[in-house]
Amino acid sequence: MNILMICTEKLPVPPVLGGAIQTYIAGSLPYLKNAHTITVLGVNDPSLPDEETIDGVRYVRIPGKVFTVYQEGVTQYLETNEFDLIHIFNRPRLVLPVRQAAPNAKITLSMHNDMFSPEKINPEEAALALEEVSNIVTVSDYIGNEISRLFPQAATKVKTIYSGVDTEQFLPGHHPKMRQVRNELRRANGLENKTVLLFAGRLSHNKGVDRLIRALPELSKRFNDLALVIVGSKWFSQNDVTDYVAYIRSLANRLSVPVVTTGFVAPNEIQNWFAAADLFVCTSVWQEPLARVHYEAMAAGLPIVTTARGGNPEVIQLGENGLVVENPEDPNNFTEAISKILSNKALMKRMGEKGRELALTLYQWDRVGSEILDVWNHATLSQSTAPVPAANKVTSIEKYRNEQRPNKTTAKKATAKKSATNKATAKKATAKKSATNKATAKKAIAKKNTVQTEQRSKQPSKLVERTVANLANSTPTPTNQNQSGTNRQSSLNKKVLKSFLQEMLIASTKQSLEKLARPSK
Predict the structure, then answer these.
(1) Region Disordered: what ranges (predicted)?
(2) pTM: predicted TM-score of the whole model, two decimal places
(3) Which residues of 408-421 are buried (b: 16+ CB within 10 A; e: fewer)?
C-alpha cells in the first residue's frame, strides 16, 4: 500500500529535537517500510530539508508550529497526492479535513495524549471523526479507556500498542559499551562514589520533579551518599528559565545533596545519563498517557519509582521492576518508596535486571512495527466491497462544518450593520449624557460655593483666630512694674484687631455673594 504518516505540528521527524511521537514513528519505520511505501508528512525545521528520502522512506516537511497553519498545509498536500491509507498521529482535529481532501483513503488514528476531551475538541466533531477512522491506536490502556468512556461507540476500534525502545542505544551502566561512559560522566560531575537518582523529562509543574527535590532532605538522613541528576528543560531543545525552572533550582541550591541539572540533552546522547544513574524516578502528578522514559529506564537496567497517574503503572510489575507511588503530591511518599529500594541492594539489582529483561522481550521496536502492520491490514480487510462515492462520504462532514460556520458574507454584513447602529446610538447617548452631566455639575458647583460662602459669613474665620493668636504671641513680655497695664492694653488691642478682621471678612463675603448672583456670560 501507499501510506502517509502525518506527524504533529510541534516537532520534526526524525526526532532531532526529541519528542515521544517522533521517536515512536522513527522507531517503527525500519519495519514498516519493508512492507509498504511510506511517506512521512511533518513540520519543517531549519536543520532539515523540506523533502528527502532516507532508507526508502520519503519525508515531506511543511510549515507548522501553529495547528491551523499546519492543517492547511496538510490538506493542500493531499489535494495533489493520493494514498491508500493515512495514519494520523495524535490530532483528531485533522481527521475531518483529511477526509475531505482524501475521501477514499482509509484512516488510522494514533493517540498519545487525551486529545478527545471536550477542552481539546468539540464533541460533535470528535464523534464525526471517530466515524471516519478505521482504527484507533493508543499508547496505553489509560488513553484507550478515556476515549471509550467519552465515546462508547468507538470502543471496538481501540487497540493499545505500547511504545518501544532501542535496546542497543540504552544499555546498563555496567555493560562493556557503557562502563567507560558511565565512569567519565560521573567523574566530570562530581558523582563518583554516589548513589545517583535520575529524573528525565520536561521541567514543568505537571512533571513534578520538585517533589523529588523536597524528598531529598529526609532521604539524605537515611543515605549519606545520594546525588540527583535532573535531565531536561522547559520544552524540547529549549533551555529558557521559567518560573518553575527557577523554583526547582532554588530548592536544589538549599540542599547539601549534590544536584546536577543538565538542561536539554540531545536524543542521541541521553542514554549516557541513564547509564550513569542507579535508580530512575518519574514524578508525574498529572494523568500522564505513559511516559516513554519508563522504557528507556528499563532498557538501561534501572529500577523504577513511578506514579499511579495515567498509564505510567501499566509497565510496572510491582516489586519486580519497580514501585508505584499512589499519591505523588506528597514528597514523603517518594521518600518511602525510594528508601525501600535503596535499603535493599539485592532488590535493587533484581529490579534493574527485570527491567532490562522486559525491555528485551516486550518493548523492542520490531514488536511495535509488527502490531502497526496488523492494524493497517485490518483496516484494508474491513473495507466494504462497494466503495462509497466521494460525494456521499463527506456529506456529514460538510453538514457539520456548515452548521459550525455560518455564511461569512451574510455574517459580515449583519455584523457591520449592527456595529454602525450601535455606534450611532452610543454617540447620541454619550452626547445627551455629557450635556446632562455638565448642567448638573454646574448647578452643584454653584450650590456648593453658596453654601461655603454662607458658612464662612456666619462664623469667624480660622484665619482671624490664627492672626490674633500670632499677634498675641509676638507681643513683648512685660516687666513686673507695667505688667498689669500692658495686659489690659494687649487685651484691648486684640478685641479691636479681631473686630477689624471680622468686618473685612464680612465685606469680602458680601462681594462674593453679589458676584455669584450676577448672570453668567
Answers:
(1) 385-495
(2) 0.76
(3) eeeeeeeeeeeeee
